[in-house]
Design goal:
Layout lengths: L1 H7 L7 H21 L3 H12 L2 H22 L9 H15 L8 H17 L2 H4 L4 H18 L3 H11 L3 H25 L8 H22 L4 H25 L4
Length: 257
């Protein structure tokens, strides 16, 4: 018991109840993402931001999310659509490189509002579905989403409409989205490390969140294989609308949008 208590209390500026809460939330949000393809990352960063040191929120969130997305993409690897992976990764490297120059200067709520509006626009207009996929398109979405992820953490919502437009089956949608986001979070983690962020003090928290997150992903995968395509699409779009509305509300509430 003493060892467990020491582990829980080892993370700087984090109470024991907050430590336990974040670990449980990691399980639930990974389950949500594995079942519906997205949403868990945004929920997780919102909760982490209220409990963790603000400076640590985005880097630590990236570590947890790369695990969640990587495990999900490995479990569904046969369904990944790799066609647009390379341009997306190239765009992500460019976007993160640009954001690293000003990462502490731009208010995150501004990006949240813009992302929220874009998601609603993409759902209620035919433009993205009708847009012909190309290297330019996926380099562009890689640049924009990776630039924004340095400030708001979870930008899977921004990538999701484009992935949905190029996939026609629920497992392909979830697997491809997870693979793309794994690459982007990896680039982000490396960049924060180069900027001088120290991950070591948060290692106990990250390890337990990763273990519970992996468990949540396994449970979510079993749910994904059981639900119908129609129900999945309805839940996927509903999740996008709810989370986009929340992002816009936060921006307005904070007076930055």
């Amino acid at each position: 018991m003493d060892t467990i208590s020491e582990i829980i209390c080892s993370v700087p500026e984090l109470s024991s109840w907050a430590f336990i809460s974040l670990c449980l939330v990691s399980f639930f949000t990974s389950l949500v993402s594995a079942t519906f393809g997205l949403g868990g990352g945004t929920m997780l960063v919102a909760i982490m931001a209220s409990l963790l040191n603000p400076i640590a929120t985005i880097p630590i969130h990236g570590v947890i999310q790369i695990n969640s997305n990587l495990v999900r993409s490995i479990m569904l690897r046969a369904h990944i659509k790799f066609v647009w992976a390379l341009p997306f990764v190239i765009g992500s490297i460019v976007g993160v490189s640009l954001a690293s120059q000003i990462v502490f200067a731009i208010p995150r709520n501004l990006f949240q509002g813009i992302i929220g509006l874009f998601i609603l626009y993409s759902l209620w207009t035919p433009s993205i579905k009708a847009l012909k996929s190309s290297w330019i398109i996926f380099i562009g979405i890689g640049v924009v989403s990776s630039f924004a992820t340095m400030f708001v953490g979870g930008t899977g919502l921004l990538v999701a409409p484009f992935v949905k437009a190029t996939t026609n089956e629920r497992r392909m949608t979830v697997a491809t989205h997870a693979a793309f986001m794994s690459c982007q979070h990896g680039v982000k983690i490396l960049t924060f490390g180069l900027l001088g962020f120290t991950f070591a003090p948060y290692l106990p928290l990250m390890v337990i969140m990763i273990i519970l997150g992996t468990t949540g992903t396994w449970v979510g995968k079993s749910i994904l294989t059981k639900i119908s395509e129609k129900l999945f699409r309805l839940a996927f779009n509903t999740m996008l609308i709810l989370l986009a509305t929340r992002l816009i509300y936060q921006s307005i509430k904070n007076g930055l949008f």
